[in-house]
Amino acid sequence: MACCSIQIRAFNNLVNKKKYDSVIFFLNRSILFLTVYRFFFKHSFNVIISFRSFMSSQVLNNDSTISAYFLNKFIYKKIIRNSQNYATSLITNSRESKIDLIQKFGIDSKKIKTIYNSLDFQTIIKESKLQKDQLFPSGSKAIVTMASFREEKNHKFLIQSFSEIKNFTKFKIFLCIIGDGVLRKNYIELINELNLKYLNWDESKTISSEVDIVFFGFQKKPYNIISQADLFVLSSTREGFPNSLIEAMSCNLPVVSSNCSSGPKEILNSDNTFNFDTKV
């Protein structure tokens, strides 16, 4: 509580000193922060709130604990609904997320708009075509995914699926994971349980046929890696607007995606009826 109080005072000092015309609030916790801030301080800046995920699957999740469920349903839901009363603009990064806020949280459709994430396609395509050393052994195939290690990204499902299919192919196949996070230890334990071998890659290491899964860690410019793979897979249970899917497509990779409530269906061919749902 003391930490929150310090942050609120620091924020108030900053906006008063800089005299900002507008402040954009990203991520869900910032809405809680803004609610507490407005209780103690008046402000003259325009409030812009950007929702980055499918809110009902996050806030109204029946799988949460009883206390968290009631906190989300009766308090956080009200905070989100009330944001339309003081915010200058409400923004989502996908059309389905906008519909979700209107239908599940009572947001006025006239007060919310969708602005898709921006990407530098020219840079992505240029870097994907740069001269590079061959990462994978000749004749092998590589499946790649890119996401931080969080529950909703569903790497566990992807690793388990890979362990089931890898022995049914006529060629060596790798699962390449770009990203990192607090669940790394959990995934390594799962890999060991499944009798798979992994490699923590860096530029000094060679990917051999003895390896099954390659951890590439966080990459500022992952396009050199993505473009050498053969398939991109997104296994998330929840997304807002998955940049990684578009980045992979920009590298000329075929993609397979889980059918999240928002995001992938707005990117991929709307006439494509093949999809799959996943559970953590």
Write the H/E string, N to C: HEHEHHEHEHEHEHEEHEHEH
Biggest beta sheet attributes: 6 strands, parallel
Give the strand content.
15-25%
Please tell me how large the radius of gyration is: 22 Å
Describe this structure in words.
It is a single chain. This protein has helices at 2-18, 29-40, 55-59, 66-82, 95-105, 121-128, 155-165, 184-193, 223-226, 243-250, 264-267; strands spanning 22-26, 46-51, 89-92, 112-114, 141-146, 173-178, 198-200, 213-217, 231-234, 255-257. By secondary structure, it is an alpha/beta fold. A six-stranded parallel sheet has the order 7-8-6-5-9-10, sandwiched between helices. The radius of gyration is 22 Å and the shape is elongated. It starts with a helix and ends in a 13-residue tail after the last helix. The model has no long low-confidence stretch (mean pLDDT 89).
Give the tags:
280 residues; alpha/beta; four-stranded parallel beta sheet; 11 helices
Structure at a glance:
This protein is of the alpha/beta class and 280 residues long. It has helices spanning 2-18, 29-40, 55-59, 66-82, 95-105, 121-128, 155-165, 184-193, 223-226, 243-250, 264-267, and strands spanning 22-26, 46-51, 89-92, 112-114, 141-146, 173-178, 198-200, 213-217, 231-234, 255-257. The chain is elongated and about 65 Å long.
How are the secondary structure elements laid out?
Blueprint: H1 2-18, E1 22-26, H2 29-40, E2 46-51, H3 55-59, H4 66-82, E3 89-92, H5 95-105, E4 112-114, H6 121-128, E5 141-146, H7 155-165, E6 173-178, H8 184-193, E7 198-200, E8 213-217, H9 223-226, E9 231-234, H10 243-250, E10 255-257, H11 264-267
Parallel strand pairs: 1-2, 2-3, 3-4, 5-6, 5-9, 6-8, 7-8, 9-10
